[in-house]
Every structure is written in C-alpha cells, then in structure tokens.
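Give me structure tokens for this 216-residue protein.
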Amino acid sequence: MNETLVEIKNVDFSYGAVPLLENVNFAIKNNDFIGIIGANGSGKTTLVKLVTGELVPCKGTVINNCKESIGYLPQYAAIDKHFPISVREVVETGLMTPRNVWRLRLTADERRRVDAIMQQMELTAVAGMPIGQLSGGQLQRAMLARAIVSRPRLLLLDEPETYLDTDSGQRLLQLLEKINDHCAVVIVSHDVTTIEKYCNRVARIQRTLEELTLQK
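Here you go.
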C-alpha cells in the first residue's frame, strides 16, 4: 500500500522578517526515495526540520503519520567527532527514545540488532574505536547505522555525501538503495547528478518547491 507518511500543506516559514519557504506543498509516501536539491540557503535543511518537528511552520500544516519512526542523519559538520564515545555506543544511541533514555542496558534482541547493522555497514572491526578516529566514510556509515538501527519508516539525510570522496559517496547511496526496500528515504543534496539515478522523485527548493521530471 502506497501510504502517505508525511504531508506538507501550504507551508510558509520565516526566520524573523526574512521569508525562507513559501506555499510549500509536498507528500512523502512509504516507498519513496526522494532527492531534495537546491543552493545553499535555499531552505533544504529547514524543510527537513519541519518534517522532524524540530521547527513549526509559520503558516500551513505538516501532517506526520510516522513521527515516532524517523531516522535522521544530520549534516557532517553537525557531528561532534571529539565526543568521547565508541562506534558501537554511537549506534546504540539510535535505540534511545524519550521513553527509555535513562535505561542502562539493551535487551538481548537489541544487542543482536546492533551487531547485525554494524556488520551490514562494515563497522564490526572498528566497534570499539573512538568516533574521532574514523575516516569520513566510516563516520557517515556509523551515523547511518545509528539512524536506521531503530528500523524507522522514514529516513532523512542532510547532504550525507559532503566530505566524502566519489567512491565513498557512491557506496553510501548504494546502501541507501537497499535500505529503501523497507524504508522511505529523503536525501538532501546540492547536486542532482549524484543522486538522481537512485531516486524515484526529485524536488528543487528555492523558497517554493518544484517537483522535477526524471529522465530514466
């Protein structure tokens, strides 16, 4: 069933007196692999934060049918690589929710889930390593593992290919293509040529949002 996970209706958003988004209408379905493109400052990250609920629209509505089941990979620059935490511990935090944030131990099933996702992301060999010692590609895979270990219905990624070389970027997109078999994916990017062959939909944002026709 092609279920609607998120619907954005007639949304405006401003920072102070400066309008950033105007009359944005958009829907995310459960089988989507969507690319959101646009220049720096065009509103891409703001749109993601409206979907997660971190921001509230100044006008219009965001109907979110999967608010408790969203995985989020922030921009690379937003990751604190100096925080004293191991790769495995990073992945384990993806199982924390407001309801269980003070719980000290994972269940046996959760530990197996962490093991499986780390193996899938080829992180088992670096499980005990501090995240600050990882390469760019390894760090992105660790943060992706954290985002999907809870088995979300929607995965949001904010320019995940930034700071990755071409091979690492393509490898990441191939992983996302597999994840899309059981999870909707929305990837924010500045480069349509990098992502379009993996997407079933691409939209360009520059204050308003325009869905593009893909040439497959």
